[in-house]
Specification:
With 341 residues, the protein is α+β, with helices and mostly antiparallel strands. Helix content is 57%, strand content 14%. Among the domains are: 11-151, Beta Polymerase, domain 2; 286-337, Methane Monooxygenase Hydroxylase, Chain G, domain 1 (Up-down Bundle).
Length: 341
């Protein structure tokens, strides 16, 4: 109709996030498609929300400040790969920094370890995960939530537990690989005596030191989440975090065990090298002992004097050889009697 004023619905902006789930109290899983829908969900306080953000994407990263209004210092940490592993409580949420590790297969060194941080913002009804590299833990938990939405309906704190538990569990295959490396080095030490064995031992010890540097603060984070009362973690969920703590403690103990084994292997290698050197010196000493008496007799009779005992004797040469053989044989018999041979 002429003169009628048209009313236009505001255009909602697409939600730039790798993953955005919402679960209603009834257990139905939904994917959030727009920023405005996410903001409405957050304002309503209904259901459980999980948003995963790739910090390499500017559009996704800006959601931390524009929609969630997190503290600038916490947001800054999500772009710092050197942020220490920690748990901090802000007004309205918990901020957790955890570290994932894997072997750096793109380097020529077999023992190089690469790590990256995973950041969790845990509120009363939302969880925001941030990472700068593809996260196997996030992918694994997302697949579980899609297959069984009731897992997320149990609360976002339970999803946070599943993420940290999965991230920690991925340390075990890496430790199994290190166990294989340690076995190979032990075999190399006591069978092959490779020239680069010591270098490989130091490389593996350096990797174990780096791994322990990551796991030690992870143990403190798991202990804090399992034992410290928090408004964002229900007591029934904190019991699950004790399992995460137990896993981290086992991993730290495994790393310490591997370091002790490598220290013992290094001492064994040095002892083996020393024993081989002693065997060589022993053989050379026996040769020198056997050769020295004939050399002494020959050098005496090789002096340029006109008169020497037995010099003109028709059997002098054979007597000299006999003396050499008797003296050398006597030395050999003496060393055998003293158990030096």
């Amino acid at each position: 109709m002429a003169g009628a004023a048209g009313h236009h619905q505001p255009v909602e902006r697409a939600l730039a996030a790798s993953l955005a789930y919402a679960v209603e109290p009834g257990g139905r899983l939904e994917r959030l498609a727009t920023r405005e829908e996410l903001a409405r969900r957050l304002a309503s306080g209904r259901g459980q929300i999980w948003v995963d953000i790739d910090s390499r994407s500017e559009a996704e990263w800006w959601l931390l400040g524009d929609v969630f209004r997190f503290h600038p210092l916490a947001i800054e940490d999500t772009r710092s790969p050197e942020s220490r592993i920690k748990v901090e409580e802000y007004d309205g949420y918990l901020f957790v920094v955890a570290r994932a590790v894997r072997f750096a297969t793109w380097t020529p060194e077999p023992y190089d370890i690469a790590s990256y941080n995973t950041y969790l913002f845990l509120g009363r009804n939302y969880l925001v995960t941030v990472h700068g590299e593809p996260s196997r833990a996030v992918e694994t938990v997302a697949a579980r939530v899609e297959a069984a939405p009731e897992l997320m309906a149990r609360g976002v704190d339970h999803v946070a537990y599943m993420l940290l538990d999965t991230l920690v569990d991925f340390y075990f295959p890496l430790l199994d690989e290190i166990d294989t490396f340690v076995d190979e080095l032990e075999e190399r030490i006591f069978e092959h005596h490779g020239k680069d064995t010591m270098e490989r031992i130091f490389e593996l010890k350096r990797s174990l030191l780096a791994l322990r540097r990551h796991l030690a603060p992870m143990r403190e984070v798991a202990a804090t989440l399992a034992n410290r009362p928090s408004a964002y973690l229900r007591p029934e969920t904190q019991i699950y975090f004790r399992d995460v703590y137990d896993h981290v403690v086992r991993q730290v103990e495994s790393v310490e065990t591997f370091r002790d084994i490598l220290s013992g292997a290094m001492e064994g290698y040095l002892s083996s090298v020393s024993n081989r050197m002693n065997e060589v010196i022993k053989a050379l000493s026996v040769i020198a002992t056997v050769v020295l008496p004939p050399t002494l007799v020959a050098s005496i009779y090789g002096m340029n004097f006109a008169r020497m005992p037995g010099l003109d004797h028709p059997w002098g040469f054979w007597l000299a050889l006999l003396a050499m053989a008797v003296i050398s044989g006597g030395f050999v018999i003496y060393m055998w009697w003293k158990r030096w041979l």
